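Let's practice the habit of predicting before peeking. Look at the sequence and jot down your guess about where helices and strands might fall. Then scroll down.
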Amino acid sequence: MRLIEKTMPESTWQERALRKYYYNRPGWKDGTTQFHELIRMFTPSGAKILEVGAGPTNKTTAVLSTFGNVTGLDVDPAVRDNIHCQQAVVYDGVTIPFEDNSVDLAVSNYVCEHIENPIQLAREINRVLRPGGLYIFRTPNLWHYVSLIAKATPQWFHKRTANRVRNLPEESHDPYLTYHRMNTRYACRRILESSGFNIKVMKIIEAEPSYGMSSRLLFYPFMMWERLVNSSRIFECLRVNILCVATVRK
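Done guessing? Here is the structure:
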């Protein structure tokens, strides 16, 4: 037994910190789990699903594929490598190449912040959804420190730092250009309601400090921020992610 213990690789400080301060906390759920639970709550079995900005293989598409047929839509040809999509479509980022009222559910995961004209996107999603169809998405909240820094800095800075501070592998895709035009509660509500949607769920959550994974000097201050903004609903507007479920008003 001692020999086995010596040859087992030691966990990283990141794994130990997440396990100690987050994963072992009673009732704690990471941000992705909360988003996926929202999807499971509202997605009917056998749904025809459109994932806008699906990208390559990922956990969200995998969850969606358990409910029905998933079509991945993206401006990036990398969507063709998403093994959980029954169909992958590369489009121009403007007009969704589907007929009116042809989709049950549309989902976007960290996409809205990259859209230059979110009203146009919301109207296109509304057009292809059937009456009563749902649009579920997760996007960063502009008033969180990560989004404020991203909005105030140029793209070259994002490319040099974003993946590094999250401790992502070197082969990870460079960050896409961001606009943050649909990234506050007010902006989401205004854009969705003007595009023919009614809001069913909108909440802002703060999860583990993923942007502090490169250094303890970042992790612990960011963790204290998480503790602060989760301590009271007074600070809800400063949390990291907006989760939203909207239904078509037709």
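How did you do? Residues 65 and 180 are 28 Å apart (CA to CA).
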